[in-house]
Amino acid sequence: MAAPEKAAQPAASAAPAPAAGAGNEVLSPLEGKFFLVKNASETPLKVGDVVKEGDVLCYVEAMKTYNAVRSEFSGTITSINYAGGDTVSEDDVLMTIQ
Fold first, then answer.
1. What is the DSSP string of 6-41?
2. CA-to-CA distance for 86 and 95, rounded, in angstroms?
3. FRET pair for 62, CA 20 to 30 Å: which of 8, 14, 31, 43?
4. Could you list the pLDDT tens digit for every one of the 98 residues in the chain?
5. CB 94 within 8 A of CB 82
6. Which run of H or E residues covers position 57?
7. What backbone phi and psi angles, to 5 degrees, belong to 50?
8. Burial, 14: exposed, middle or buried (Cβ in 10 Å; 0-12, 13-18, 19+)?
9. The 3-state secondary structure of 62-91, one letter per residue
10. CA-to-CA distance for 48 and 17, rounded, in angstroms?
């Protein structure tokens, strides 16, 4: 009789992935429209991207002026809460970074 096969054990990850939406909140500095990029030559950030303190994360456009929102801490983006062109209010949570 053949011995039953053992189920394969999943490989242990070196670092667990951050939980979606967990971490430090990035707040909107003012009311306006949310954009990940200012122009087509920029590459938009996405969930899972690693950022450093001082990096430009996104923009809030108000009165035809794009205001850069910079990261106050280093880490991995765990959520982006708005789509490009969405209206945001002051202190809305734009992203979370862990």
1. PPPPPPPPSSPPPPTT-SEEEE-SSSEEEES-SSTT
2. 13
3. 43
4. 555 555 444 444 444 555 565 689 999 999 999 999 999 999 999 999 999 999 999 999 999 999 999 999 999 999 999 999 999 999 999 999 99
5. yes
6. strand 56-62
7. -95, 130
8. exposed
9. ECCEEEEEECCCCEEEEEECCCCCCEECCC
10. 9
